[in-house]
Amino acid sequence: MFHDPDFQPFEPRAEPSLRAYVRNYLENFPPEAYREGVAGFKRLNRPETLFLTDPDLIEEVLTTRAEFFPRDRITPQALSNVVDPQGLFLAKGAHWRWQRRAAAPAFRHENLLALTPIFFDCAERQAQSWRRAGTARIDVAQAMMGVAFDVILRAVIGDAEAVDRDRFLAAETDAFSGFSWQFLLAALGLPKFVPHPGFLKMHLATRYLRRETARLIAARGGADKGGDILSLLIKARDPETGRAMNDRELLANLFTFISAGHETAATALAWTLWLVAKDQATQERLRAEIREVAGDGPIGRDEIEGLVFTRRVLQESMRLFSPVGAISRQPRDATILGGRPVEKGAQVVIAIWALHRNEKLWPDPLGFDPERFAPDAAKARHRYAYLPFGGGPRICIGMSFAMLEMTTVLATLVRACVFKTVEGFKPDLQPNISNRPRRGLPLIVSPA
């Protein structure tokens, strides 16, 4: 078990703050959410906001009574300026169900295993670049954005030169940087077109991103290029009705897979590298496993299953620094949840950040210990105590893609390089679409 005060990058607020909504909404998760299973607050005459960290109640909301607790009003409104509601991420009801059925075959395990050479090659290019540079200070958050985006270009679109990478990544940052302001407007019941800092930049960036995504689809012209995800989506049909995605649905889903897909994986990888830089013993054990399993050769489908400790490191990293901080739902009507009355219109927040640090669920929750995910420990834990990819019917469709990608990338980088922390650096969070570090994550990177 490794401890460091930097693993707690902020203190929860006893009272919610409007400023925290914009700067770091995770600060508004009440202290009780880290100790109990339900916490809440009520502001003026608005319905109560509940924060759930009780796995049984989370399972009830996300699975057992999923139809009664649909997506909340606030999050879709906050994202709808950037993310098209016609896609899987924001679609509702029957419209979501048929798209999910149609897209699911693209993410079958055998299809994803075929992509592991791409994952390895993208990571190996980065590793070799670092090795050529010798010992250097590197912002691994920025670097992982580049690696994960290269993976998306090749594995999802099938073309490494499809877009201007730097421009696309900068536009994504501008587009999603307005999420906190949009969330605050939605929470206050204000229209999404009310101007706020970065409003024009957000809209111009979104327009560029959608135009580029549409161009990618048009350039494909319906052609099947093989096993990339775009080819599989173009061919996708609902097995019950035979329905295919129209142009708008295809555009919405491709945009989501490009943007959210690489954003969350890159964020998780960056935090993982920072954590193993903090804990050199874990880094050495990780490197030893990788060399035992793969030697100096490529890391592919035959090696990936043997990287047991590597996966545990990733899982523990995503517990301490979950890529996404929360999931929100709203009841269709007044109800009872865990013996507690819940008003119609109440905001029910699955507080993932606090859930993963809850004292009742995780012994020594602020310690870094990959052995929490050893088989016996994982089996003894409630399955809704750990939700880095969400849970229930709407669990992230790209979960297996992300785990294979991150395992391959982490193993490739740690085998090639040694990571150490920068003296005096303190991390700060800037949650938007993912829990990004505000000022990056600088590390000292040297050839192994």
From TrEMBL:
Instruction: Look up the record and name the cofactor or cofactors this protein needs.
Output: heme
Q: Which InterPro entries match?
A: Cyt_P450, Cyt_P450_CS, Cyt_P450_E_grp-I, Cyt_P450_sf, Cytochrome_P450_monoxygenase
- Upper lineage: Bacteria, Pseudomonadati, Pseudomonadota, Alphaproteobacteria, Hyphomicrobiales
Q: Which Pfam families match?
A: p450
The residues the record assigns to binding heme are 396
Tell me the first and last residues of the signal peptide: none
Spell out the family assignment given in the record's similarity comment. Answer: Belongs to the cytochrome P450 family.
Query: Which PANTHER family does the record cross-reference, listed alphabetically?
Result: CYTOCHROME P450 (PTHR24305), CYTOCHROME P450 12A4, MITOCHONDRIAL-RELATED (PTHR24305:SF166)
The protein's name: Cytochrome P450
The molecular function GO annotations come to:
heme binding; iron ion binding; monooxygenase activity; oxidoreductase activity, acting on paired donors, with incorporation or reduction of molecular oxygen
- Write the record's keywords in alphabetical order, separated by commas: Heme, Iron, Metal-binding, Monooxygenase, Oxidoreductase
Q: Which domain of life is it from?
A: Bacteria
